Amino acid sequence: MFKIIPYSIVLCFAVISMSFSSDKQAYSIYEINGKVSNYTRLLERLNEADIILFGELHNNPIAHWLEYEITADLVEFKKQNLILGAEMFESDDQLILNEYLNGFISDKTFKDEAKDWPNYTTDYKPLLDLAKNNKLEFIATNIPRRYANMVFNRGIKSLDSISDEAKQWICPLPFAYDSNLACYKEISKATGGHGGENLKLSQASKDATMAHFILNHFKTDYTFIHYNGSYHSNNYESIVWYLRQSNPNLDIVTINTIESDSIEYFSTRAKGSADYIIQIPSSMTKTY
Q: Which secondary-structure segment (H or E) carries 15?
């Protein structure tokens, strides 16, 4: 004898089946205004750029994977006309970095002597090795943290006292600064005003120095891809502002990485923050 299954149960099973038949996405890509984009269109645009600022979430594995994949694909397009650089390496480590890229020192020696980040091995070494294997330049762009700390603790004038040799590792002094930029107002607000103007100037010294070293190593007909925290390039401020001060004609493309509960819908909080917004599920595991 056959039992008649109620329609409501059939419908329930159908909905469940449809729900589980959809693929789980690890990311989605949107343009500045929320228009849906994709990896191919993103890559085509990046291939045309003078400078790419990839704003990452430092502990997000998808952001790091996409950094690697995008860079590897750009190598196929640009060949030797590609330069890499990163916030994660301080400018005074450039010599050690070059020695590693040229095969003069081992990875262990590099790690022992450079000021590498805790997630260097999983997240940044693959990019460094990509440059090494393809004989590409990799530029350490960030201000040595001791000098940023001097600004925070003693003010911007404290940098006047360091030696001329030391000054080669920071942007030329005095550097331009706009305290009204939202990026600096926001960091002050987030810390409840702790650190006062020195905190904002310390951040500005990082942005100005990164822009300085990007511009110092940029070459016509090349693309410079720079990896930095999203904070340092969002809303076309920070590094972008300093690049524009020196050369307003540069073709700069920015990427902002955010986490979202529903990546199939554009997060309006990211609208206008970058040329491309990569949304990653909030449930994504972290690298540290």
A: helix 7-21
- Mind listing the pLDDT tens digit for each residue in 178-209? 999 999 998 878 777 777 899 999 999 999 99
In the CATH scheme, what architecture does the domain 27-281 have?
Answer: 3-Layer(aba) Sandwich (3.40)
Cβ-based neighbours of 188, under 8 Å, separated by 6 or more:
195, 196, 199, 200
- What are the residue ranges spanned by the domains of the chain? 27-281
Burial of 2 (0-12, 13-18, 19+ CB in 10 A): exposed
226: nearest Cα among 39, 9, 54: 54
User: pLDDT below 50 — which residues of the chain?
Assistant: 1-2, 10, 12-19, 21
**Which residue type sits at 4?**
I
How far apart, in whole angstroms, are the C-alpha atoms of residue 144 and residue 118?
17
